[in-house]
Design a protein that fits this description.
Number of helices: 2
Strand order of the largest sheet: 1-2-11-7-13-5
EC number: 5.1.3.13
Helix content: under 10%
Order of helices and strands: EEEEHEEEEEEEEEEHE
Catalytic activity: dTDP-4-dehydro-6-deoxy-alpha-D-glucose = dTDP-4-dehydro-beta-L-rhamnose
CATH superfamily: Jelly Rolls
CATH topology: Jelly Rolls
Number of domains: 1
Pfam family, one: dTDP_sugar_isom
Pathway: Carbohydrate biosynthesis; dTDP-L-rhamnose biosynthesis
GO molecular function: dTDP-4-dehydrorhamnose 3,5-epimerase activity
Number of strands: 15
Bound molecules: dtdp-4-keto-L-rhamnose
Length: about 180
């Protein structure tokens, strides 16, 4: 299993092997002890799946506050996405910084987004299917969003930072300045 830490080292890329044969492939997409060894130690309690039909859909930037803060282990099982984590932990040396990675059906990479980070992604293909494990359950009252293209964060979205297919909620999300104090280290 390949493990890489990104420029914000709490954000981890994990690529489990795929064993191919004439039938197709087999892959352990999650293995508790192995992922714990890789640094992903919080137990998961919810699995999610989304389908974005169009290329250029952006979902995010999202998080949940305590007592339902979520870490997310994200993978793309159809198509490709550019996945992003933004450090929102006041007191962190990388507060307000972002990291991103392309994850796809093809590269089979998963990204670990710890609690205290905003999470979002841009679809790079049509029919992008994303599956992710969460360390806490959905709690509507704890949900928060930040606008995807806030220049203060400056995410370099591969398809550009001006146009995106967004949910109504994400279109009116506040700037990153609203997130000050949501999390601390
Ligand atoms: C996130 C979530 C949504 N829902 C419902 C609420 C709503 O009716 C519908 C669609 O929700 P949303 O528009 O928030 O879905 P979406 O924009 O895909 O939200 C997701 O975005 C990515 C980037 C994340 O990181 C996730 O944690 C989550 O916030 O699904 C649940 O029932 N459970 C959940 O865990």
């Amino acid at each position: 299993m390949k493990i890489e830490r990104l420029a914000i080292p709490d954000v981890i890329l994990v690529t489990p092997p795929r064993f191919g044969d004439a039938r197709g492939f087999f892959s352990e997409t999650y293995n508790g002890p192995r992922f714990t060894e890789a640094g992903i130690t919080i137990p998961f309690v919810q699995d999610n799946q989304s389908l974005s039909k169009q290329k250029g859909v952006v979902r995010g930037l999202h998080c949940q506050l305590a007592p339902h803060a979520q870490g997310k282990l994200v993978r793309c099982t159809r198509g490709a996405i550019f996945d992003v984590a933004v450090d929102a932990r006041v007191g962190s040396p990388t507060y307000g910084k972002w990291v991103g990675a392309e994850i796809s059906e093809e590269n089979w990479t998963q990204i670990w987004v710890p609690p205290g980070f905003l999470h979002g992604f841009q679809t790079l293909t049509e029919n992008a299917e994303v599956q992710y494990k969460c360390t806490d359950v959905y709690a509507k009252d704890c949900e928060r969003a930040v606008i995807w293209n806030d220049p203060e964060i400056g995410i370099e979205w591969p398809l550009g930072g001006t146009e995106a297919v967004l949910s109504d909620k994400d279109q009116v999300a506040p700037p990153f300045s609203a997130a000050h104090g949501w999390f601390s280290l």
